[in-house]
Amino acid sequence: MDAGAFPQVFTQNVGFQCFVPSWFLWGQSVGARGKSSEEADILLELAYLVDQDWRDTWQRGHTAFRVGQHYRAVGDVRAAEQAFELALESLLISDAERAGAHASWSLQALGDLAREAEVYDLAITRYRESILQSPESAGGSFRGLASVWKARGYEVGYMLGQFEVLRERGDIEDPWLTQGAAQALFEIDAFDEAWMLIRGAPEAVQNTAPVLRIQGSLYERAGDLERAQQYYAEAIDLFLSMDPLQAAASAIDLGRVLAEDGNLKEALESYELAVELNPKAKWYWYRLGQLHLELEEMDKARYAFQQALELDPENEVFRMRLEEFSD
Q1: CA distances from 26 to 10, 11, 22, 53, 245 (A)
Q2: Shortest CA distance to 275 belongs to which of 261, 259, 290, 293?
Q3: Per-residue confidence (pLDDT) for residue 74, from 0 to 100
Q4: Which pLDDT band, with edges at 50, 70 and 90, does 270 fall under?
Q5: Kind plus residue range of the DSSP H or E element containing 190
Q6: Using only C-alpha atoms, what is the Rg of the chain?
Q7: Which residues, in sequence order, are CB contacts of 222 under 8 Å at separation 6+?
Q8: What angle do CA 301, 275, 232 make, to 5 degrees?
Q9: Chain-centre distance for alpha carbon 201
Q10: What is the pLDDT of residues 80-137, one digit of tens each?
């Protein structure tokens, strides 16, 4: 399938201009299988959706989003932009539980494309829309905004002010608005401003899991490992009942700080909790393996590295670690 054909086929189907028959897409999928399994899988899903007459807005939007990811990865900016726009159109009218997050990610992707093209005003608009659509899903959009403002030469104080305005435009009680903005400031080393943003939030927001976690990061960065452990532990406790994947990420944070503080056994318990909560996170298994190595628990280290490699068979770091055991 040539590079220009796929976007045209996609547009014809999603735009309801003229339906390409599903048998054509099935044939294209077979032809793509030897070159790109990802493209073949997308074509198969397109074929299925053609048969379903594209009535499912969630499936249509999700497929369009995947197509956008594919074309962004291969460098076809025009096709990627077109697909993300089509995804957004469908996702915004879908009542599926996951539609809001994917709409936010579509807006973020459009913001990224605009930023890469140095169309900064459009990028800022897209990132803001992404954040307001789903603050919990918009971590990349917060970072994108900070990146654009930095590229324009704005001072950190300006960024803090803009994040405050954004928080007021949204819901100041939403902890993800505070967490995302503070995280973006943290990642450009604007630690004082991140603290100012957190302390400007309502007390109830400061004591939520997302904001406790970013406070742990700030204390860790300042070298206050005891407080960092306290805040990460509190974040884990709260996340466990609402978001196991976030609890797993916080457990990795806590394990890292415990290990740095010399508490290897406690760090091990934290890493074990992380892989229990998110067993598909390859780097969690790798970190667990590294800690088992440090504790000279070789069989357990080997097992953890094997789990990491099974999740990512092409990863040379994981492969090299396992090969060390065969020497």
Answers
A1: 14, 17, 6, 16, 36
A2: 290
A3: 76
A4: very high
A5: none
A6: 23
A7: 191
A8: 110
A9: 24
A10: 898 899 889 889 998 888 899 999 999 999 999 999 999 999 999 999 999 999 999 9
Q: Higher pLDDT residue, 37 or 50? A: 37
First to last CA, the chain: 46
Structure tokens at 255: 């394990």
Q: How far apart are CA 142 and CA 130, in angstroms?
A: 9
User: Residue 324 pLDDT more than 60?
Assistant: yes
Own/partner contacts of 273-281, CB < 8 Å, gap of 24 or more, are 273/236, 273/247, 273/248, 274/248, 274/249, 275/248, 275/304, 275/307, 277/244, 277/245, 277/247, 277/248, 277/251, 278/244, 278/245, 278/248, 278/249, 279/307, 280/311, 281/248, 281/311
Q: Rounded to 10 degrees, what is the CA torsion of 119, 121, 125, 127?
A: 60
